[in-house]
Amino acid sequence: MTQVMAHRGASKVEQENTTLAFRRALEMGADAVELDVRRCATGELIVHHDAKLSDGRAIIATKKTDLPVHIPTLSEALDACGSMWVNIEIKNDLSEPDFDPSEQITNEVVEFLRQRGSIEKWLISSFRRETVDTVRKLMPELKTAWLVMTVDNAELEIVAKQMAEQGHCAIHPWVKSLTEQLVITFHKHGLKVNTWTCDNASRMKEL
Hints:
- By secondary structure, this protein is an alpha/beta fold.
- It folds into 2 domains: 145 residues, Phosphatidylinositol (PI) phosphodiesterase (TIM Barrel, Alpha-Beta Barrel), CATH 3.20.20; 59 residues, Alpha-D-Glucose-1,6-Bisphosphate, subunit A, domain 3 (Alpha-D-Glucose-1,6-Bisphosphate, Chain A, domain 3, 3-Layer(aba) Sandwich), CATH 3.40.120.
- Helix content is 32%, strand content 18%.
- It is built from 7 helices and 8 strands.
- Strands 1, 2, 3, 4, 5, 6, 7 and 8 form an 8-stranded mixed sheet that branches.
- The longest helix has 13 residues.
- The protein starts with a strand and ends with a helix.
- The mean pLDDT is 94.
């Protein structure tokens, strides 16, 4: 079944990763929303794609009260998503200033969702495999997916088998590297394939 996921909300018509963008996506009939979560200096979980603000300040070094007003907390963002299911990408990249090898941010996201409830509505993803593996250990009932640029054809079977055994539900490959063999292999192991970001109508039809 094909579903439409609004990448950072309805980001073509509203500022991305804002409550306005999430509400507009719901109004436009999207099935789901993808958003990005980070921590700021005062510990709040906030929604923003980049590790730095447009003025160069690192979010991890900026207090919540000093962030631009359009940047929502994770709680505010999920409220704005209403009935849609949400792909929550935990940003935890080795190359960025807020990299967290201890996975404390992962613990905090999981605990927040545990308290919030509606577990069936959330899918947790990350480019860092250790991050989604940590989610599986902390709260196995949360759906998890690994974000990838690509998977080498020679490793498809191994990766799909590992992910299935660990209980992940999906892989999220970049649309430009998505192949029929990848889809076949991961489907064979019971995993979904959710690609990002497809904005081309002919490619959508092909997929």
